[in-house]
Write a structure and sequence with these properties.
four-stranded parallel beta sheet, Rossmann fold, binds iron/sulfur cluster, 348 residues, alpha/beta, 3 domains, 15 helices, globular
């Protein structure tokens, strides 16, 4: 039994992309942002899917570029009083929940996520209440309100480990919102999982027929796949993992060519790690294609240097605000995730 969302009812108001900057404009923004970061005791926490200009700036100014788990960890432990979260809205909310006293700013508050959009609080709570005997595990890509209704929040890097752990405790699971990740975890663990039916509009676009043709063109290439991708893509993968795990795999694998099924902005960091290797994005075109995202998240694209500067200059229009009650409730499953991740780290 599964919960279906009517995707025809889903509205994706795809945003316009920020303008491409020339080197002088980039230098202008870097100079002003750097000075304001110092003045306001602020640091940038950026996701791998943001633009190379933002990733470079984050690292250059003592911030971090990471997956959502590491972003959460870094932001919570950093002494800065203001965090600039370059990513999508749920990442800003997670930072606020973990650091309620900090000022959490985002380059834009409009950057959404299809998984979050397609898991509305009211429907989700009803779904949980109809299946009260199940432990509620939600992916990090959810709103603060959905997190507050859950028992556990989890990221893709440790999702399989957590579900194995819960299965061994004899628990039945509600998983939300990504159905591909849910199916992947179910296959890996054989746990009893009731799955919400959301998808990531970026990963859902990868096409297995075209990927098989690409494999014929590059027979020695390894295929790295994010588990938000459809099963027929995962079945072709040499490695399935979170963004951090895929970057690590690119380094460890002996293959000189690598085909990657995730947002193509990961290539900036991956290519730095393996400068000698050829990286190719997995195809989103071909048979049955109706590509809307083409391997790049339209909401991640909304993060811009201009947005970061504006956030530092006019904080209020960029500020994440959550009420205390919600923070208190959502903090419980988030803390469980961080403690579980720490335990895993110690055991490995
Ligand atoms: S890439 Fe997919 S999962 Fe990630 S923020 Fe964009 S829509 Fe959400």
């Amino acid at each position: 039994m599964s919960k279906f969302i009517d995707f025809n009812q889903s509205v994706y108001p795809f945003p316009t992309k920020p303008k491409i900057l020339n080197p002088n404009e980039i230098a202008f923004y870097y100079k002003h942002i750097q000075s304001l970061l110092n003045k306001k005791n602020a640091v940038i926490v950026a996701h791998y899917y943001t633009s190379p200009e933002i990733q470079i700036l984050a690292e250059k100014t003592g911030g971090c570029v990471a997956d959502s788990l590491e972003m959460a960890r870094f932001g919570a432990s950093h002494p800065a009083i203001t965090l600039i979260v370059a990513g999508v809205k749920f990442m800003g909310e997670t930072a606020k929940i973990l650091s309620p006293k900090k000022n959490i700013l985002m380059p834009t508050l409009e950057s959404q996520c299809s998984l979050d959009i397609n898991c509305p609080e009211k429907d989700f709570i009803q779904f949980c209440n109809e299946n009260i005997d199940r432990t509620v595990v939600v992916y990090a890509n959810t709103s603060a309100a959905v997190k507050a209704r859950s028992d556990w929040v989890i990221t893709s890097s440790i999702a399989v480990d957590l579900i194995k752990y819960l299965k061994n405790l004899g628990q039945k699971i509600i998983w939300a919102p990504d159905r591909h990740l849910g199916n992947y975890i179910q296959e890996k663990t054989a746990a009893d999982i009731l799955c919400w039916k959301g998808t990531c509009i970026v990963h859902d676009e990868f096409k297995s027929q075209s990927l098989k043709m690409m494999k014929k063109m590059y027979p020695d290439a390894a295929v790295l796949v994010h588990p938000e991708s459809p099963k027929d893509i995962i079945d072709i993968a040499d490695v399935v993992g979170s963004t951090s795990q895929l970057i690590k795999a690119a380094k460890i694998l002996p293959n000189k060519s690598i085909i990657v099924a995730t947002d193509k902005r990961i290539f900036y960091k991956m290519q730095l790690v393996v400068p000698e290797k050829s990286l190719y994005i997995a195809p989103t075109g071909g048979a049955g294609a109706v590509c809307r995202a083409c391997a790049h998240c339209p909401w991640m694209t909304m993060n811009s240097l201009h947005g970061i500067l504006d956030a530092l200059e006019n904080g209020k229009n960029h500020q994440i605000q959550l009420n205390e009650d919600l923070i208190e409730k959502a903090l419980i499953p988030l803390k469980r995730m961080l403690m579980f991740a720490d335990t895993l780290k110690c055991n490995n």
